[in-house]
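Q: Could you write out the predicted structure for this multi-component system? I'm mainly interested in how the pieces pack against one another.
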Amino acid sequence: MLGHDHEDQVCSVARALEAVGQRWSLLIMRDLFVGVRRFDALVESLGVTRSVLTRRLAHLEEHRIIERVVYQHSPLRFEYRPTAKGQGLLPVLAGLMQWGDRHYPHPAGPPRVLLHGDCGGEVDATSVRCVACGERPEFEEVHALPGPALADPSAGHRPDVL
Amino acid sequence: MLGHDHEDQVCSVARALEAVGQRWSLLIMRDLFVGVRRFDALVESLGVTRSVLTRRLAHLEEHRIIERVVYQHSPLRFEYRPTAKGQGLLPVLAGLMQWGDRHYPHPAGPPRVLLHGDCGGEVDATSVRCVACGERPEFEEVHALPGPALADPSAGHRPDVL
């Protein structure tokens, strides 16, 4: 999001946005979070060109925010997964989701709800804490399930998109 | 951050990024949050051109994320302040700050620490909750004070930048 002249800025927000502030980067992370992890599925979900997606994935991989994991050996096929560092962006994505839910609401209700896999309780997006059991679940225990707007067949959505 | 073809996407993250995902927008919100609120001060703090800043501020004002407030009548002068809607982005900014602190650390320590104005306790950036008193302070009660990296005279920082 910043030019190279800002790389030395003494600001953690600016440094974070150097890594994930480019167009598409946070939406790629959103897709990886909800389970869209293969190149072709990302192209379709995002409506981005293959060349732009290639560049964005390479940038995120250089920053060790995502990693390639083999899911098929013959022929060799990879998918992309958030690293532990990438998983640390969950509060940022959850915060954007909650803010979007509140200020740009879908008429049918929230597109996604965050649930705690262990107990099924809803996860508060601000605190990333389960409202049922009070725990703060790890990344892999938070499931972003389709909410009312994505369960509404008139909404014209693609089910793999938040 | 998205093209216009994504405005109807059933996704609250995408809708949020339509409003604040453009280059500079979240850094403008960071500056307003720490008290840099006048046009010339924003130009200097961000190193952005006046024409780009004008467009970004107009976009944020259209979305009612910021508002202009008169601070001088003769001649008439405005400053920009986050609205209640804009203040709702605090968890997103705090999340980016904490992630940047952790993964792109400054050698001298965090550039900013968040303190709860009422009790002076540190505010946890993930939960936006005061670790001393347990309250979740309102936007105006959270002070982003210079931390070790901004107190370090060798860091070459501008004191008004996070």
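A: Regarding packing and overall arrangement: Chain B touches chain A through 56 residues (CB under 8 Å).
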